[in-house]
Amino acid sequence: MQDLALYFPGILLAYTAFLLAIASPGPNILAVIGTSMSVGRASGIALALGVASGSFTWALLTVFGLSAILAAYASALLVIKIFGGTYLLWLAYKSFKSAASSHDIEAKELSGERHRPLGYFKRGYIIQMTNPKAALAWIAIISIGLQDGAPLSVGIAIVVGTFVMSIAIHVLYALAFSTPVMVRIYSRSRRVIQGVLGTFFALAGLRLLTSRS
Fold first, then answer.
1. 32 CB-near residues (< 8 Å, 6+ apart)
2. Distance between start and end Cα atoms, the chain
3. Which of 129, 141, 191, 212 has the greatest number of C-beta atoms within 10 Å?
4. Is 152 buried (19+), middle (13-18) or exposed (0-12) by CB count in 10 A?
5. Does the structure show a pLDDT above 80 at 105?
6. What is the spatial distance between Cα 95 and Cα 26, in angstroms, rounded to a whole number?
7. Per-residue burial over 38-65, b = 16 or more CB atoms within 10 Å of its CB, e = otherwise
8. Which of 15, 29, 20 is nearest to 182 (CA)?
């Protein structure tokens, strides 16, 4: 508990980065929304749980992978932070670009034949696990919370916390955005949301690149 309290600011920042990263609908979120609208909430929720489970798997692989690297090469933390900070700046650029664009979100059902809820869960998991951007995002998120000498329990705390948030938010998307009305409401505030996300990612990226620990 003392270790977690000591590294709590980094853990909280990692939570915030993850929360804001999924606040803006990407391809996976749009697939969840589209499935809920076209097929039904049960299928949308199943797809959402599959995506969340895939995200949890990536988080575990990232934590244990980075922990093993840091245990063998202490100097690797600097390289990881440079990579993570650079990726966050890239996300900031993408968010600002989206905020400046007039292009609206497009929620579409997944291509192919329709399945039972279990089938959508499997598709959600496979989609997330075969997404290379998910690995890059998790390296950035975990590197925010990992400081020099941080124990494995810090990484586990990040994984567990983000997994709970992932389930809650993905399911919320499936429930709330199962009607066209909610999609229109989000569209009206999309640019403001993207601007806020861009600002946070830029600040987090700069903080990570200038951090000494």
1. 44, 47, 48, 51, 124, 170, 173, 174, 177
2. 20
3. 141
4. middle
5. no
6. 11
7. ebbbebbbbbbbbbbbbbbbbbeebbee
8. 29
